[in-house]
Design goal:
This protein is an alpha/beta fold. The protein has helices at residues 21-30, 53-57, 70-83, 100-105, 126-132, 168-192, and strands at 10-16, 37-44, 61-64, 88-91, 110-114, 137-144, 154-161. The protein is built from six helices and seven strands.
């Protein structure tokens, strides 16, 4: 007879806009034997986001959200999150800013990965800005989402040395490798407190 562990997995939704490499990484992590979470929903604001292929490949429900009207878009998202009993939202390259109202609805239940050592270089073009300012290090940060852009409480960070030969693409690739290691670790830390 199969052994019943009685461990209820945390339902996670991942929001993407692009290739979904962090999504793929989180899916692989969720499939490990002692994983405490399950990715139950993928949300994208772009119908052509390559990351949506993982929804099909791993048989995960997906929803493409039309963002022409942010109020309607977020209402639609909230309906889906409730339908799939989502406990935690992971933003992984989601290129839309969530409204204060949406964040309040999921207070402390939204995390994001950002390609810089926050509080430095919030927003876009982080790698080029770090190189232009002659920083010795860049890196990535997983943080809680609050109403201010890339300003929520930091969960974990990882430094990446900026090399003399770096351009923004080379640096981005090295930082992305660290993101793939950091996001699952941060998620594990967050799940303990849920």
């Amino acid at each position: 007879m199969p052994k019943l562990t009685g461990v209820k997995k945390i339902n996670v939704a991942v929001f993407i806009s692009g290739n979904g490499s962090n999504l793929k990484n989180l899916i692989n992590y969720s499939l490990k034997k002692n994983s405490k979470f399950k990715i139950s929903l993928i949300i994208s604001n772009k119908s052509y986001a390559k990351g949506l292929d993982y929804a099909k490949k791993f048989k995960i429900k997906k929803k493409i959200i039309n963002y022409l009207n942010i109020k309607n878009a977020e209402k639609d998202i909230i309906t889906k999150l409730k339908k799939y009993k989502i406990d935690l939202i992971c933003l992984a390259g989601f290129m839309k800013i969530l409204s204060i109202n949406f964040i309040k609805n999921f207070n402390g239940k939204i995390i994001n990965i950002h390609p810089s050592l926050l509080p430095k270089y919030k927003g876009l073009n982080t790698h080029q800005r770090a190189i232009d300012n002659k920083e010795k290090y860049s890196g990535c940060t997983v943080h809680y989402v609050n109403s201010k852009l890339d300003s929520g409480r930091i969960i974990l960070q990882k430094k990446v040395k900026i090399l003399k030969a770096d351009n923004s693409n080379k640096l981005a690739k090295r930082v992305l490798k660290q993101e793939h290691l950091l996001y699952p670790k941060a998620l594990k830390k967050v799940l303990i407190n849920l």
